[in-house]
């Protein structure tokens, strides 16, 4: 009997119950979908690191001997050490790509991950094990020959295998903003393949059984005890989390995590509030039925369970379906784009217990809301329940007690009183519109940010046509010759480590002198002049370290452990390169040899000369940025879809509920002579007004959501801001969705059954 009653109630209130189901479904679809992508990325990365025994830290230097390696290995906190010789070479292939060669005697740390062909044979002097993605881009396969040149030495090797490396999950681009495998790759070789008798070592890979900070302290103490002062000055310690590969992918994970958490906050609250409103209305509408059931012997416990089952079933089914669909769809949307940036052997979605926890929270929340709606009536006796509930006496609102009230038209008066009678429904509708606006603002704000960064970087700051990336072994005479030939400006970029306010982080040192080709700007994109004899830091770096002009920082170049004490003399804005910028004069004052790593020029250069590794024109650089923003565009599209879904579901379901509640009033107004268009206007005005108010509140709220997304990127910097055009677009979408939904509801006025509507009691 109660089951049949539940089915009948659900049929009579189907749109509200569909909305509850959809809100639960969408919540877990977004949370489990994006969460599965994030968890999968974390799991796949962790498993890859575990399988390949990725290094915990690296020591980089010009050269170190076997004694140093042995001393590191003998530390009790060191579990293993492997020295390598790493050098960049130029392959004799189209576009002369850069291939980073690793010569090694063994490979137990950061193991090469074979995809095709043999494992590394350390007795093979003629083979090379190549980056699989580079080989694919160059149409190379196992058995092919490849010729590479470094330091004036040419080597011809046979490709024995293709694979990946955990140290190259993200390959630091040789040019542009993201790696292009047509122009760069890596290769592993046995030390027997080294073209010489005594192979030097310039990189150590280490694993440890303690925290990185403690391990750094112990290695530094060991070096000082053994009086390795020259080694300390000439080398540097890099923890894995500071390496470009690991830091970039962790940065990506953190940004996606923000979005995975943001959706449940909005959708869960809306779902539960809709449930509370719907169940309250059903219980109030069914007082007589409940009294009758009590009178014929149904216990309160049975009736409470009956009404709790409404929300329980809907939220449980919606949550389970959302987890299943989200887990099996959304992660695969991101795979193609993510694979263009990162290299992992597996891209399976992951699963996290928080998906189940989120579903349980929704279900438990539905039980609490349903119980709140039904608990008070269960305390009444059957005879009291059989009586109609006395109509609620509404106090006059603030506006009704002012002189303004008498000047308002009937439309506004009626809607103000309806809002006053149905505060909860109004609040839920308002919250839904705010959520829709926040999602829209986040989407279009991200779009604005990404687009603005491109114009900021390549129009406001950089004014060159061509960027010439120099080879590592380019001589100073070659560099000078290239500068003269192209009338260019030399620029040097190096990785550095900055320490300030208790934080330590890897950033970029940029060295260049004043040039019309590079116009520094502040964070608001206004032109500024950098100090000739001081240190300027990027605005993102200042935010990360909590720095202001006049604060003290220390920093050092990777490959040189000598720390330099500096004062922040200026803060500039740069969308993509974060760190420190100094002049060549200031570099020399701090014993930093200025040797250009790139040359920028206003001329259009197409041919590579000796010493040039790659040539990038304006189009190449902007295309690189477009590729970088593909993931952001996916996130933007997802936000837009969910924003419109939220608005449609909330406005339609609550609008339908509101229509049911005022159906008697509308029938009365019809009898009094109101025309259909007057009633439509009366009905639509309220929801358009709520939508406008929700939009006004949602705009600044969206600002803080954007700020949370922006602050989770250590690489990109864009001020949290959106244009008037964006605000106008968000307003139009919000109002159009609201207007369309409410016009659909207003058309129901034509089908009001006057007799039945007038028989209804006011709820």
Question: Explain this structure to me?
Answer:
The chain is α+β, with helices and mostly antiparallel strands. α14 (423-461) runs antiparallel to α21 (724-746) and α20 (676-711) runs antiparallel to α21 (724-746). It is elongated, with a radius of gyration of 33 Å. The two termini are 26 Å apart. The mean pLDDT is 83.
Notable characteristics:
single chain, 763 residues, alpha+beta, 6-stranded mixed barrel, 22 helices, 19 strands, 17% strand
Low-pLDDT regions: none
Helix tally? 22
Cross-sheet strand order for the largest sheet: 2-3-8-5-7-6
Shape: elongated
Compute the CA-based radius of gyration.
33 Å
How much is the average pLDDT? 83
Give me the secondary-structure category: alpha+beta
Number of strands: 19
Q: Report how far the terminal alpha carbons are from each other.
A: 26 Å
Fold topology:
Layout: H1 2-12, H2 14-52, E1 57-60, H3 66-73, E2 78-91, E3 98-104, E4 113-117, E5 127-131, H4 132-137, E6 145-150, E7 153-164, E8 184-190, E9 203-208, H5 212-225, H6 229-234, E10 236-239, H7 244-285, H8 287-295, H9 300-341, H10 353-378, H11 382-386, H12 404-407, H13 410-421, H14 423-461, E11 466-470, H15 476-486, E12 489-500, E13 503-511, E14 535-538, H16 539-545, E15 552-557, E16 564-572, E17 579-582, H17 584-589, E18 598-601, E19 612-617, H18 618-628, H19 630-671, H20 676-711, H21 724-746, H22 754-759
Parallel strand pairs: 3-8, 5-7, 13-17, 14-16
Antiparallel strand pairs: 1-9, 1-10, 2-3, 2-6, 2-9, 4-7, 5-8, 6-7, 11-18, 11-19, 12-13, 12-15, 12-18, 14-17, 15-16
Helix pairs in contact: 1-9, 2-7, 2-9, 2-10, 2-19, 7-10, 7-14, 7-19, 7-20, 9-10, 13-20, 14-19, 14-20, 14-21, 19-20, 19-21, 20-21
